[in-house]
Predict the 3D structure of the following.
Amino acid sequence: MRSSGGLLIIISSFLCLFCFVALLFKIFHKIWWTPNCIQKLMASQGIRGPPYRLIHGNTKEISNMYKEARSRPLSLSHDIFSYVQSHVHSYMEQYIFLSSVYRFEPHEYPDGISKLETMSMILNESLRLYPPAVAIPRITGRVVRLGKLIVPANVQLLVSVLAPHHEPQFWGPDVHLFKPERFSGGVAKATNNNVGAFVPFGLGPRTCVGMNFATTEAKIALSLILQRSSFTLSPAYIHAPYQSIIFRPQHRLQGCRRLGARSPENEKRASTSLLKRLKVKAFSNYGRPSKTEIFHKIWWTPIRVQRLMASQGIRGPPYRLIDGNAKEVSNMGKEVMSRPLDLSHNIFPVVLPHIHAWTKIYGKNYLQWHGTLPQLVVTEADLCKEIFTNKDGVYLKPKFRPYAKKVFGNGLPALEGEKWVKSRRLANHAFRGESLNVSCCSSYVRNWSL
Ligand code: HEM
């Protein structure tokens, strides 16, 4: 009895000892072995950093740096990196810029980035085939003369960006091929001086203020990625360019379902709400509309505008009561989405099937109806240029719909008149090449020639 009690004590002490040693081993593994292994592995690939310290890593140094940065008064400067992320700033200087691969010269001009000619050509060709903004809207503030046309007030002008970008007349028979070398002599040469033929960032006074920023950012990001990795097309890739506010791949993350993806119920709900919205839109300006006002809005004005434009040779799909051409547009979209798309850059018939089909039937500029709103679709490069240049200030930006207002708020894209002039002046200054101050990034691309 006594001997079995002793055995039990020995076994349980052995188990306790074993658990204690295992725990010690686990702790040792977690706080010493794994961090050192990771540090060594990264160092062997040229990635250095502040040495790992037992248990707390670099948290103490980071916290001290923060305290030190916060204790200094900050001058009224945009150079906030060293203030907000003092540890990243300090470590980058120590372990990246001073390393043998990257040398940092503080006042270097960012010519390294502007010299990435092949990359500029590739970005331009991508923006030509897949412009993020496929069409840019304007609205006529009063009766205007556009080319030879007289356009009444309150007509929406839908300036197509995609159409001139895919027009064989400008780009030749290989228009649907990805050929960055067409931009080797610059944009003017590639377009044969047709200013309206390549407008991914718009044109004229309201051209994209972030153009320099966007292209520089893309070049820096791509140069960093391409120096370390290469790409090949995934076998799971499904070619489905898709327009929803901006132009993007429909299957953003492969294997992930888009929230609110199109199911038959969603489609039904969407089309009913569209109909509702159009009806509300048709009457929204009126408060309690009288019968005459309703008749005027949904029948008289559309028919009058249609006749006026037809008398000037501008044709289009006939206006249908309240809906305009919304149903046809939606059906054409559904029809295209139901077909599989081959791996081609000829995406105009897929992304804007109605504009593609109707320009073929009715000509380069035609009239279509978004509910009761007349839309003059303009694909002719000269007219696009005239609208964008907006010499007399008659082509206004349409008011944002509620969902777009949530995105843009009362920012620059939503402003008009004096307010826009003031804000644009400030934004122009902030987005100038010199203000962007990308000098530190040129070291990323110094030894790289693409
Ligand atoms: C590839 C990237 C981008 C493309 C293709 C693009 C395209 C455009 C286009 C076509 C317009 C003109 C809209 C019109 O005429 O009504 C525009 C305007 C504008 N963009 Fe961009 N954009 C890009 C990136 C950016 C970035 C990165 C910023 C800011 C950081 C930006 C800020 C703006 C602003 C503020 C306007 C309104 C300008 C005004 O109304 O005066 N964009 N953009």
About this structure: The CA atoms of residues 170 and 192 lie 7 Å apart. Residues 97-110, 253-264, 270-287 have pLDDT under 50 and may be disordered. The two ends are 84 Å apart (CA to CA). Residues 30-71+80-101 form one domain.
